[in-house]
Design brief:
single chain, alpha+beta, Phosphatase 2c, domain 1, 6-stranded antiparallel beta sheet, 5-stranded antiparallel beta sheet, 27% helix, globular
Length: 314
């Protein structure tokens, strides 16, 4: 059957094939948020795209991450202020990672988040190369804080900034760490500054184990949105370690993900537990993270790491 008319125009069946599938609609969880076309961020925010995702596998581990601009920032012409980065440490087969959430009151929060991730990742990779036991996360935190100070100094035309000035320009939360394969399985070490979070998802039971204190835990009487972000490095840095079983997934996310997740026993927890049993394509993870639910309009970032003893990525 001919697929072309005499004047070279495509026939209707071919035109339908070429039109492709319907575009993905936002995944709705409960009552959706408002629908609108996103507005552009400021003209000098071109380095901070609306959506960012990545994914790849090292010999023993698979990583995916996605970061999306929240509805509030899309509406008010503000850039995405979350960031995530991951890298493989080739000598040990480890995956190092960093996730950051720029504090909205900071003038250039988006730059603070990116620079904190870059600096933390660089330092973790350097320390892993020395392989001298538990990683010095205070060293990592101070390295990231110094990078923010350097960025502020440049912004101020070379003048040495006070800590308060650095915070006013580039304050950000940070969760950073690594997963390392070893003869006994997969060791995890990580630290945090601020209120971003980390969880272990048990794919067999669909349960979430928080690795840091949460805003919604059973012992929390009053929810607080106050954070003590970088460049402040607390005297007692929150750090923890755990191990991943073959059926478990490490999740690291900003509060744009953690707040709607809650304890993990609601609709958001069910959605992600079902979708993250095995590594999804990076673009699909970004689509998942961009779910629509009323009142949850913050930027969202989620990084996930799977042991490769689980089924191959689909």
């Amino acid at each position: 059957m001919s697929r072309q008319s005499g004047d070279g125009a495509a026939t209707a069946p071919l035109a339908q094939e070429m039109s492709g599938p319907e575009p993905w609609q936002p995944i709705t969880v409960g009552v959706p948020g408002p629908e609108f076309e996103a507005t552009p961020p400021g003209q000098y925010a071109f380095d901070f795209p609306d959506t960012e995702c990545d994914g790849w596998s090292a010999p023993a581990l698979t990583v995916r991450f996605a970061s999306v601009r929240g509805a509030k920032h899309r509406y008010y012409r503000q850039p995405r202020q979350d960031a995530a980065r991951a890298a493989v440490h080739e000598a040990t087969g480890s995956i190092a990672f960093a996730v950051a959430d720029g504090v909205s009151s900071a003038t250039y929060a988006e730059l603070g988040a990116v620079e904190a991730c870059r600096a933390a990742l660089e330092r973790i990779l350097h320390l892993l190369a020395r392989d001298q036991g538990p990683l010095d996360f205070r060293d990592v935190a101070h390295h990231a804080a110094e990078r923010l100070r350097q960025a502020a100094e440049w912004r101020l035309g070379g003048r040495l900034p006070e800590t308060a000035e650095v915070a006013a320009l580039h304050a950000t939360t940070l969760v950073a760490g690594f997963v390392r394969p070893d003869p006994a399985g997969f060791g995890v070490e990580l630290c945090r500054i601020g209120d971003s979070g980390a969880w272990v998802l048990d794919a067999s039971s669909e349960g979430y184990l928080p690795l840091f204190g949460t805003k919604t835990g059973g012992d929390v009487l009053v929810v607080s949105n106050e954070v003590a972000p970088l460049p402040h490095v607390p005297d007692r840095l929150e750090a923890t370690h755990t191990r991943l079983a073959p059926h478990e997934v490490l999740l690291v996310g900003t509060d744009g993900f953690g707040d709607p997740l809650g304890d993990g026993d609601g609709q958001v927890g069910s959605l992600f537990a079902g979708q993250l049993a095995t590594p999804p394509p990076p673009l699909w993870l970004a689509h998942l993270v961009d779910f629509s639910r009323e009142t949850f309009d913050d930027d969202r970032t989620l990084l996930a790491i799977w042991p490769r003893t689980t089924p191959e990525p689909r």
